[in-house]
Amino acid sequence: MCYNAYMDGSPISSQKDIEGFFLSLLSDLEEDDLRELAEAAEVRFLPPGTVICREGDEGDAVYAIVEGELEILQQLDDENERHLHYTGPGEFVGEMAILKQGARSATVRTSQPTTIIEIGRESFMKVLKRSPTLGFRLLVRLTDRLRDSDQQAIAELRRANEELTCALKQLARIDKTKTDFIQVSAHELRTPVASLLGYAQMLSDNSNVQENPQLQVLTEGIVTGTKRLHRVFNSILDVSRVMTDGLEIRRSPVSMAVIFDGVAVELGPALEERGLTLEQEGLGSLPIYSGDPDLLYKAFYQLVNNGIKYTPNGGRIKASGQVIESPDLGQCIEIVIEDTGIGIAPEDLDLIFAKFYRTGEVALHSSSTTKFKGGGPGLGLTIAQGTVLAHGGLIWAESPGYDEETCPGSRFVVQLPLNQPAMEASADSSPEGAR
Ligand code: ADP
Hints:
Layout (H helix, E strand, L loop, with lengths): L14 H11 L5 H10 E6 L4 E3 L7 E7 L2 E6 L5 E7 L4 E2 L1 H5 L7 E4 L3 E7 H10 L1 H74 L1 H5 L1 H31 L8 E3 L1 H11 L1 H7 L2 E5 L7 E3 L1 H17 L6 E11 L3 E10 L40 H11 L3 E5 L11 E8 L18
Parallel strand pairs: 10-12
Antiparallel strand pairs: 1-8, 2-7, 3-6, 3-8, 4-5, 4-7, 9-11, 12-13, 13-15, 14-15
Helix pairs in contact: 1-2, 2-4, 4-5, 5-7, 7-11, 8-10, 10-11
The structure holds adenosine-5'-diphosphate.
Adenosine-5'-diphosphate (ADP) binds next to helix 10 and helix 11.
């Protein structure tokens, strides 16, 4: 049995009842149209949970709700659905798919015992084409629906945005706690390791040890291992220093040629061992730069050291400098460090600057920092980037790609602006380059 609660609570069963129902909705509808709609209509009483039409199905009928409630929803996957809204007596459902002659954009399901009037597509379209009243009614309904879904989308976006902001703050807090922990641990561990290194070196200089080949090997092992540990702790401290907001730079006059001479001397044995050449071009002609010599030395050391690590024996590394006019930084010093190594895949060019990021198959330890592909802890470029950014500069990597057979090479470009704040060091201080 069907009930017409929309009108007066009495059952809706005859064609007259249906005409009366449509008249209450569309009072200006012509008599012929009213009759045609009523003739094509079929009254259906549905229990809760009945799916009237499904998202993706072809639209073949329109439904007018007489009594009860329908839920409009979207299927996200097999198990999850997204509620869009509820609709009730006097509303039409399913007209969109008919108007655009396409598939249903949502699923419609009864949420309580519901009475609907179903009208087939053809009859509905016939009346719609000639009835401005029906057209107007649908237009109003579609506009309402658009406004509702706009408001719903905005509310959902706002909620998602709040959740993301909250998660971001939480992540930043966790990241800071982690950085603090790493920094404190590295600091605490570096001090005893430094004394260990001192004692180990004293031991290896001891005449008794030097006279005993077996003891000599053991002591060398201790010295090498302790040096490695010391280097790792230093790198971690450097990274946490450059990752901290407001990295303090102690500016003084810096000669890039002196910096690179220092790097060449320190890495000389490695270059020789690996049969690599380090060319320098134009560095001596660069103006004296106002920067932090200690940090800059470390940054360029990392870049040249990477050139050594990722270039097969017999290759070439070149460091060149010039003064350029950059669209972003104005007049600046540009230093390019390029190599004839294995290159970098395009998708890694930005990622390699993230801390602990490494590409490809590298030896995952820092036992030999200048061995071919002897990957370090993945901190070198983070230190270099942090330093360059703290100087107001830019750093990026360029490479045709990664290929260990053809070795296309990599280029690291560093730009440091020349219009820096006045040097803090006294006027008579001589240019510094190394630590
Ligand atoms: P790592 O200690 O692993 O060398 P870095 O931060 O210095 O850490 O470098 C990150 C990654 O970037 C390296 O593991 C390597 O994959 C890639 N990379 C850095 N420099 C070069 C280079 N000159 N040629 C090829 N790949 C490089």
